[in-house]
Amino acid sequence: xxxxxxxxxxxxxxxxxxxxxxxxxxxxxxxxxxxxxxxxxxxxxxxxxxxxxxxxxxxxxxxxxxxxxxxxxxxxxxxxxxxxxxxxxxxxxxxxxxxxxxxxxxxxxxxxxxxxxxxxxxxxxxxxxxxxxxxxxxxxxxxxxxxxxxxxxxxxxxxxxxxxxxxxxxxxxxxxxxxxxxxxxxxxxxxxxxxxxxxxxxxxxxxxxxxxxxxxxxxxxxxxxxxxxxxxxxxxxxxxxxxxxxxxxxxxxxxxxxxxxxxxxxxxxxxxxxxxxxxxxxxxx
Length: 285
What we know:
The protein contains 10 helices and 11 strands. By secondary structure, it is α+β, with helices and mostly antiparallel strands. Helix 3 packs antiparallel against helix 5 (110-128).
């Protein structure tokens, strides 16, 4: 989220009590942050596909069909997410808001994006025999649409909605990772996530602090400067450190939010018949 200088009204700093100043900002700009829609992306890329094509010249078509069928089943089970799959990679997208009727802390669950990404990695390993890695980002899109994608009238043009920081950062981080692997800045891992994605995970403070201590700077064309960081880590390690209580609460709330209307509808019908029966008894008396 960018704060333009024109939207800053005043800055107040209490030198004796705290390090960071208070910023008074334009109300319309502040409200736009909470009402805007955001997106999270995960790029899953298989390792060694190009090498096998150079060696064997092909990838078994039956294995590719089995991979496609498995991803179809996975997409059915995770219908809040959009999955675009290719022979050697996949792109996962989910939309969310910072605030809604129920509060985004119960609606937004970036952990589920990592769980889904890990399952896709396992499918590439199972069907094609390739290891893979995940790049995860999040942020505001300039061409955001409420649906995960839009389709043309004749069904042969799909618009993903990807103009903005999170989508661009996927490939900027990927490029930085490849360069840093060649320079031995860090070793290969199976998860590279942007710093803001990491900060939004339901982790204990000390775990989050340990993760962000290993962050690495990368250059971004959209956000120039030395304020862009990614974190190389293990997806299993991150998921094992998730606060299970918060994660289960989030999953339970989404389940209740989806199915409670049906429960209330059933109770209304039941109450209607009960009240109708009581009125009939009084009428008879």
